[in-house]
Write a structure and sequence with these properties.
By secondary structure, the chain is of the alpha+beta class. Among the domains are: about 230-410 and about 440-505 and about 520-525, no CATH class; about 535-640, EF-hand (Recoverin, domain 1, Orthogonal Bundle), CATH 1.10.238. Helices cover about 35% and strands about 15% of the residues. Strands 13, 14, 15, 16, 17, 19, 20 and 23 form an 8-stranded antiparallel beta sheet that branches. It has a 5-stranded parallel beta sheet with strand order 6-5-7-8-18, with helices on one face. A 4-stranded antiparallel beta sheet has the order 9-12-10-11, sandwiched between helices. Strand 14 and strand 15 (about 330-335) form a beta hairpin. Helix 16 crosses helix 17 (about 560-570). The longest helix is centred in the middle third of the chain and has 30 residues, at about 400-430. The structure holds adenosine-5'-diphosphate (ADP). Adenosine-5'-diphosphate binds near residues 267, 361 and 448. The site of adenosine-5'-diphosphate has 21 residues, from strand 10, strand 12, strand 19 and strand 20.
Length: about 700
């Protein structure tokens, strides 16, 4: 679709044969409670047949499988000229068969030889002699099937089962006494507390981090550091704590221009599926409950000029795989869903504010409208595939490549915003010394396209629905779950391709299009675009400092002594920052954040409070610089006192001198907006003890988003 992906496709094609090797395995004799075992082909049971990708260069062999095998190729050394992953695979053969490379000069001097079976992709070699290895090497032997514990999969179960079946992996739907390779949780990392190995499809802390308030806070911190880069998230205030700030700003807007009448959308913090959401045009219309029952919510600029199709508002559900946080690896499924409203859109007015079928795209709401059309094809109805919508837009002359690259940027930046907190959770739940699983997770990004085609992030779902059936009234008053072809096509593809990417036997491989088709066509976006985005990973470096001083494993908050140790070790105290003022800073910030995080049980300073303290310290130390440079300078200073491990993984690319604009095309800024004034910034600016960093004067709020 975009230029970015041309390369990826080539790469995927080259890796195809290796990826598919993963699907044929031996059967594990220790299995218990097997639920559905793929019917093992005669080949996979004891014999494998291979055909040569280069035909005339590689000969076909049939061989029997026997007991133990050598893990080395006949040369006993890696085969040079092969990509590392291919070499790894070749070096761990499971089948006794031998694939002869005859006259290797021919095949190995040529371009990569690609095959469409379970075969090794042979890549261009600079030294055919080394690669030839006495004209012979062993093919990867077959291995047992990847095992997947689906006992906690909940509503993902149907799609998961289909995916596992397509992959010919082995499902354990009531759990298994022995460890599984992959555990599929329906809700959170903690669905099953007893996992000490393998991979779990949820990160600890993701649910918490992606709640509306936490996501808004994390993005706002990034908006303070990189306002232009983070303009894809609507301006947001957190209720009830920022009620005063919100109403003051709106009043100022209205006073400065009587024609301005912005609309806001109010979303309860823990809400989903449109529950409890409403639109307002005046702060006085907020349904605030005061006191202990005060409900936390986010109030957000309402994007009043969305792109319409057939006069209807729609949003995009994009599936994003976080394959790893350390190092950061992100994939985006190119196939996703679009969800349509069921009433023609009109810009918000006092009259239509409560018309949910016009303003909210949630399936759960619109399905209740008489106008909802269950899609029986991909490109009609109230839920369609993303590709069908993009094709339609392309046919109208829309620059899809640009839209897609803006979406990629939005996704990477959003993940970078939540990553620091995620790492704190991760080290607390799975400390390095403790045996534990590794994690991956599919996230559901809800994205709205504005009329000017700028993508706007609405929210990120830690637990996107993987249901592939929907409720339908089959007779008057009689409801039944019936298959939903669009959901099935997209979600089974997403899960299956995720599993393929997480295949424990092929760690270095990317997913390849599955022969069954209907894949989500995932593409790697990180580390692929590291260069363009690594400068944004500043808060992660602050988180690395924070984690370093947390001390006790499992802790997520810094105590006063640890905070003092941080100041001392990094040699931050001087005549302008006495240890007494350090204590005051700690108490001041921690107390305010303890109100903000009303539900937190642990005492001390959490990461977001530490980030605020860090910004404050940076402002005092490097007064003449702008905020971002202040922070970078203080980080450099701290890290210089701490040694090499303190930075984030791309430490070198995050240096102060790095040019901040990205190498790639910078998406146009679509949301004319004031520089956000976060409560943290506001507090820093007003705190007696604080000498704030230099920052531009906040502009007044321009109403809404303009196209
Ligand atoms: P929920 O988790 O309850 O689905 P969302 O944040 O996804 O909450 O919002 C629900 C719906 O409201 C979205 O699908 C979208 O149609 C609409 N919406 C949300 N935020 C905005 C916004 N800032 N501007 C315009 N529409 C929005």
């Amino acid at each position: 679709m975009s230029d970015h992906y041309g390369d990826v496709k080539v790469q995927l094609g080259q890796m195809k044969s290796l990826g598919e090797d993963a699907e044929k395995e031996e059967v594990d004799p220790e299995e218990e409670m097997p639920v559905s075992s793929p019917s093992a082909s005669p080949d996979s049971a004891g014999c494998c047949i291979t055909t040569a990708p280069g035909t005339d260069a590689l000969s076909t062999n049939i061989c029997k499988q026997k007991g133990k095998r050598s893990r080395k190729n006949p040369c006993g050394k890696p085969l040079q000229g092969f990509p590392a992953h291919a070499v790894k695979n070749i070096n761990s053969p499971i089948c006794e068969q031998t694939l002869l490379i005859k006259g290797t000069g021919k095949i190995l001097q040529g371009k990569s030889a690609e095959s469409n079976g379970n075969y090794v992709a042979v890549h261009e070699s600079s030294n055919t002699q080394e690669t030839r290895c006495e004209d012979e090497f062993k093919l990867p032997r077959k291995r047992r099937p990847v095992t997947v514990d689906t006992s906690k999969a909940k509503t993902s179960l149907e799609a998961l089962k289909l995916s596992i079946k397509e992959l010919q992996w082995k499902e354990f739907h009531t759990g298994r006494r022995a460890a599984c390779d992959i555990y599929w949780h329906g809700v959170s990392f903690h669905d099953n507390e007893n996992i000490v190995s393998g991979q779990v499809n949820k990160f600890p802390g993701m649910v918490e981090m992606l709640r509306k308030i936490n996501l808004s806070r994390a993005v706002r911190t990034m908006q303070e550091l990189f306002p232009e880069e983070y303009d894809f998230y609507p301006r947001s205030w957190i209720l009830p704590e920022e009620y005063q700030q919100f109403s003051t700003e709106i009043r100022m807007v209205k006073e400065s221009d009587a024609t301005e009448s912005p609309t806001f959308i109010v979303k309860p913090d823990g809400g989903s599926q449109g529950d409890g959401i409403y639109l307002i045009r005046d702060p006085g219309d907020l349904k605030l409950v005061v006191g202990a029952q005060a409900k936390q919510a986010v109030v957000q600029e309402y994007i009043h000029k969305p792109l319409l199709i057939d006069k209807l508002k729609f949003d995009i559900r994009l599936y994003v795989l976080i394959k790893s946080v350390q190092p950061l690896e992100i994939y985006i499924a190119k196939e996703g869903l679009t969800r349509f409203c069921t009433e023609p859109y009109q810009e918000p007015s006092q009259k239509n504010l409560s018309r949910v079928f016009m303003h909210l795209t949630n399936y759960s709401l619109n399905v209740q409208s008489g106008n909802y059309v269950h899609s029986d094809s991909q490109n009609t109805g109230s839920k369609r595939t993303l590709s069908s919508v993009l094709y339609r837009l392309a046919a109208k002359g829309v620059d899809i490549k640009r839209v897609w690259s803006d979406i990629i940027a939005l996704v990477i930046k959003s993940v970078i915003a939540v990553l620091p907190d995620l790492k704190v959770h991760y080290q607390a739940d799975i400390p390095p010394a403790k045996p534990g699983p590794t994690c991956f997770q599919i996230l559901g990004f809800d994205i709205l396209l504005m009329k000017n085609l700028k993508p706007v992030l609405l929210e990120v779902n830690s637990n996107p629905s993987m249901r592939i059936e929907h409720e339908q009234e089959v007779a008057p008053g009689v409801f039944e779950y019936v298959p939903s072809p669009v959901d099935e096509q997209v979600k089974v593809g997403v899960i299956r391709d995720t599993l393929r990417l997480m295949d424990p036997f092929n760690k270095k491989l990317t997913a390849t299009p599955h022969p069954a088709g209907g894949g989500s066509d995932p593409v790697e976006v990180y580390p692929k675009y590291t260069k363009q985005f690594s400068h944004l990973r500043l808060v992660e470096r602050i988180a690395a400092l924070f984690i370093r001083f947390l001390g006790v494993k499992g802790n997520m908050r810094l105590g006063p002594t640890a905070f003092r140790t941080f100041i001392r070790t990094c040699k931050l105290s001087n005549s302008n920052l006495t240890m007494a003022s350090v204590d005051i800073l700690y108490i001041d910030i921690t107390r305010r954040w303890s109100f903000a995080l009303a539900d937190s049980r642990e005492a001390g300073m959490g990461l977001q409070a530490f980030v605020e303290a860090f910004f404050n310290l940076a402002g005092r130390r490097f007064k003449s610089l702008a905020l971002r440079e202040q922070v970078v300078s203080l980080l450099d200073l701290c890290e210089s006192h701490l040694g090499p491990q303190s930075g984030a993984e791309d430490r070198r690319s995050l240096s102060c001198s790095r040019a901040l604009p990205r190498g790639g095309r910078t998406p146009a800024l679509y949301l004319p907006r004031p520089r956000p004034i976060s409560p943290a910034a506001h507090r820093r600016a007003t705190s007696q003890d604080c000498r704030p960093h230099q920052r531009p004067k906040p502009r007044t709020l321009r109403a809404n988003v303009e196209n």
